[in-house]
Every structure is written in C-alpha cells, then in structure tokens.
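User: Predict structure, ligand pyridoxal-5'-phosphate.
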Amino acid sequence: MRFFSTRNAGLDVTGAQAISKGISDDGGLFVPASFPEAGLGFISSLLPLPYEKRAARTLGLFLTDYSAEELEGYARAAYSSFPENAAPVVKVGSFGYFLELWRGPTCAFKDMALQMLPHLLTGANAKLGGGLGTMILTATSGDTGKAALEGFKDVPGTKIMVFYPADGVSAMQKLQMGTQEGGNVCVYGVEGNFDDCQTAVKRIFTDPGVKAGLAARGWAFSSANSINFGRLAPQIAYYFSAYCDLVNSGVIALGDRININVPTGNFGNILAAYYAFRCGLPVNRFICSSNSNDVLTEFLKTGHYSLHRPFYTTVSPSMDILVSSNLERLIFDLCGSDKEVKRLYGMLASAGEFDVSDEVLGKITQLFWADQLSEDETKKTIADIFAENAYLADTHTAVAAGVYKKYAAATGDATPCVTASTANPYKFPAAVLEAITGEKDCGEWEAIDRLESLTGTPAPAPIKALREKEVRFTGTLKDSGMADAVLAFASDRAG
Ligand SMILES: *Cc1c(COP(=O)(O)O)cnc(C)c1O
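Assistant: Predicted complex:
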C-alpha cells in the first residue's frame, strides 16, 4: 500500500515513510492511495481471534511494507499492558453498546494507538535507515500527551516533547503529565488553548530552520498526534473487533449494519471508524458527538466550517478543539482532489472558514449525523446512566451517550449502536461525582474516594499511584518560545 498527501496526490511514500515523517512537507496529511478490501470474508476470519491478532491483521491491510510477523509481535507487546480483552464491548441498558477503550496504562483510548505507535515507528526507522534519532513532538488537549509519554518513555533512539494548554486540561491530566518518568521526556504548559498549541506544533514541524537545527543535533521530527497515520491504523482495528464481538454474542448477524457513535475532538477516532467502513465494515450511520465546541456539528450539517465562534473550556477537555485536524482526511476522501483540499485549507488559514461543495455535503449528510451536548446535559447523562445501570461513564463518553439519545429520538433508528467509551471515569472524578451526587468543588482525591465507596469499583492503579509521585515538570511557555525549547531539548544529553 502506498501513501500520498491530502495536499499533494503526486507524492508516493510507503507506510513506514508516512509513519516516520508524521506529516507531509506540504502541510497535508498522509492518506492511503486506495482502501484495501476487507469485507465479510476478512471479518469472519477475525471472529475467533483475540484482540491483538485482530489488530495485527487490520494493520496488515494498510502497512504492507511490514511483515505479518512484525505486526503480530508489535501487537502482542503493545497490548500486553492491557487486560486479556483490550477493547471489550459492554451493553449499557438503553444507551446501547459501549466499546471500552480505556483499559491501558493511562486510562484513555489514546493508549490503544500510542502503545502501538513506538513499535511502528522504531520498525519504520530500522527499515528506512538514515541514522537520525526520532524527536516526537506532541500537542495535547490532555490525554494524548500522557499516553504518548507512556508509550515512548525510554524507547531507545527517541525523545518525546509534549505541549499542553496550561489552563485547558483537567487537574488529573496535568498531574499525569507532570509526574511522567523516563530519561527522554519533556513536558511544557503553553499559554493559550489547544488550538494554539497544535497550530504552533504544526508550524515547527514544517519550519525548515528548526528542522535543520534539529538535524544538526542528530534528530528528525515525527508526530504522535492523530495526524500520524501510525496513530490512526491501530484505531481502525477496534471497530472491526467490536463488530466481531457483536456477531459472536449474537446481537447481529455477519453482514448486518451497525451505527458508530464517537465523542469527537480532532476527528481521529471517528475517522478511523470511517476508514474501517471504507474497507468494508458494514456501517449504517456515523454519529459525531461534540461538546459545546460544536464546530463539527455545524460543519457536518451545513458544509460550513468556521472558526469564528467562542472557544469553551468544558468538563470534557479532550474535545475542546476547534481546528479538527483529521477532518482534512475525510474531505479529501469525499472530494478526491488535492487541489480542492489545498484551496479549502488555504481559506481556513486566511479567512478562518470554508464551505464544501453541495456534492460533498450530500455525501456527508447521507452517512454522518451530528449533534452537541451542553455541560448541563452532559452531567445529566452521567447521572442517568448511573441511575439506570449503576455504570460510571466519564464526561467524554457521556457527551456521546447523550447525543445518541438525541439521535434515537430524532430518527427512531433502532440499528445497534456502538459508542466509543474513551476514558475511565476516574480520570475526571470531580466532574463525574458532581454529576451524580451534586457535590460541588470536591477535590480530585476526595472525589475518587467518594466514587469508590458509592460504586464499589476501585479507581485504576495508575491513577491512584499519582498521589505519591514527585512532580518533575512545571514549566510554562508562550507559543513563540516553543521552537527554542525544542532545540534546547534536542541538545540535551537525555535520551
Ligand atoms: C482525545 C479524546 C477524545 C477525542 O478524540 P479525537 O480522536 O480527537 O476526536 C475523546 N475523548 C477522550 C477521553 C479523549 O482523550
């Protein structure tokens, strides 16, 4: 399988090259030149397999320059830190089927891909040679940063640097990143919101001066954000796996369509589901769920993408995003033209908005349904899920669960719906507790104690361990200072 860029379809790179570079020099994202065929025959071959084998097979569809043995080895190693079933499907009463993606070391779905990415990347570097170490640069709205740090800590030949919005992540997320261990890691808060962080990181990535300075110090950039195809590919796997689980448990027959509902920020997780569909997964509808930052809701309904709107800080911080990177891949797939993508993203950069054609909008509305949930509705959904099922949902999953109810009421569609459950509720304990009991301003640790006694379910060990850990990183920067910080870290002997 070859890859090219959403802004240059003349490019021709291998999977290893796409993963190693992270983002194309033209500013576009790497996309597969075509979609591999993975219909019912492929799915039925996955049915008897454990999760890690399903994941390796799915990766093999796209990453044909890696051997099946390589991918199986990576998957075994990546998912060894998870329980036996890395991504189970759980029925949650009238809210449908939750695909629990947060059983990994940092308790958010980002682990599903970021435990895998270091293997794919070091494998790519071994294939490509070149001699430079890999400097991972990551902008995070909270969960990617910690998951990337855990994935890359002390991986030989790599260094990882994480930038998060200083006032835009939860207390627990900040603590998770600040206490990160490892000799090759560096973490900074940045003044501004996630979009400022992400825009600055993308600029640094493609800045020839910074790249030359980095190379002189022995390093080349790559990305752990979902702009990297190596992040997307492992996410495609769990949608195939969820479908298999529903077949195996008799909820659907092989060939039946399902709906897929995703709490969305950077559009990576839902794009992975769409890519699974493009390969042959039977999907009826994608439900794109947003919090008050509803830029995607408007776009998917009207074809108008506009940054001229307020930015809200919400109880689901990992979805507080206006510049939704992976949407570029969907638009490319639907319009099929690198020139059109370039034109649209040129307009986004200069005017802060664009409109897709009626033809593209028609394709979108056929397949996607979108809505947003307010803060109050999100809290009420957490309370409703708990009252009905004695099940704790985190704030992000609750956004999707609440939007699912709106979808079901608006359409009457009874197709079985898989909702991506993206974080362990104990990652956002104060907000979850307030939603259920109304207790306000409870500290995070007190909230954890209260939730444990309320539910009888213990908080995950990696979260509880944070209480005792030493905080190593407290620095903050302006976005104008990020490039210098990168070069300073590259000069550092660490790693
Ligand atoms: C990152 C994240 C999301 C959003 O996922 P995208 O791929 O950016 O759309 C949703 N929920 C949680 C808990 C996350 O960490």
